[in-house]
């Protein structure tokens, strides 16, 4: 049985936790993130800021008697004989004697005492009365993933490869299936410029019949009115305190992009797919929750784009990322550069799940979106920042590589299908309208060959301009 990080419900319900003292004391104080102030330069110097390596172990449990001691010894030896590189951890209660513990340690087990847990529905003195003690494995938060093995098993081949599988993976049985808690997540911070994008994103996911939750993290820059619209669009909203990117320039576009790291704090979910709010989902992508952390589509041969990522939330991982953020630089000053430095070993999603709207090939005048993408990532000026009639990236020579009327049309199809009450959150602001008209004039004066400046706009939003947000 493959088990991931400790879940919140078990931490609350199971008392006397194993290893709970290993949670950073500074972090645990009333939930305040005062780790930034507790990290002295001397301590930072001792930390190893190399690539993140997942900590993994084989685990078994002995309780209530010593009947399985020799089975556990044989199990450990069978794993070692097959050249496993993982830790071996044995949880035990007071029924295991000192002599037996010495033999178990000699066999290769790291032993850890637990208080056994009674099975609430088992009969007194039955063979399974204390079998719920196995639940203690979820308290081993010093590991990111474990493979639990009963002590009456023997390993005949190296099975380290199965740590790749997600929680909860097990050999098939005719029992009720464990349902992993999963959600799509996006983040809004620092301004309301992407509220419309987030609403369209949620609606595109819903229109493709996804069964997963949708969670939106936001800071104080998002107004009450916008939050009502986001909730009406089916986001579960959650307030966060934004995080400054240590290597970004002040007032730059990516100054607060490290706020995206908050997704690792969503420990009420086993796995999430993070999606930037300037994406649109064109096909149901629930199947990609099967992928492990960290999975993403490539930006090029070696780097990934952080616009879509499969993540397994963990407070320990979040703390680890925060500590690394002081030392590990980002090639672009933002979250994408940082995450590529930390997760140098990542799993590749198909590019169609994060189809970048960029056209760099010579001779491609139409900029048609091909290959039947699962989701489009709208680089450049966003669709809701243009007139509905055409992609206004055509009006700026420097942004021609981002222009695509076919991609633009797909976004507006989702807009047209969403409830009317949500469309108001995509209104044109005075600033947007002024910028569009300015660049249409410049394109006309330059007689740009694409000719989009000749199109007479029919977008009804141009007659209902709102104040700048």
TrEMBL record:
Signal peptide (residue range): 1-28
Keyword Manganese: yes
MF terms (GO), sorted A to Z: glycosyltransferase activity
EC number: 2.4.1.-
Superkingdom of source: Eukaryota
Keyword annotations: Glycosyltransferase, Manganese, Signal, Transferase
One protein family per Pfam: Glyco_transf_8
Coiled coil: none
PANTHER family: GLYCOGENIN SUBFAMILY MEMBER (PTHR11183)
Family note: Belongs to the glycosyltransferase 8 family.
Protein name per UniProt: Hexosyltransferase
Species of provenance: Citrus unshiu
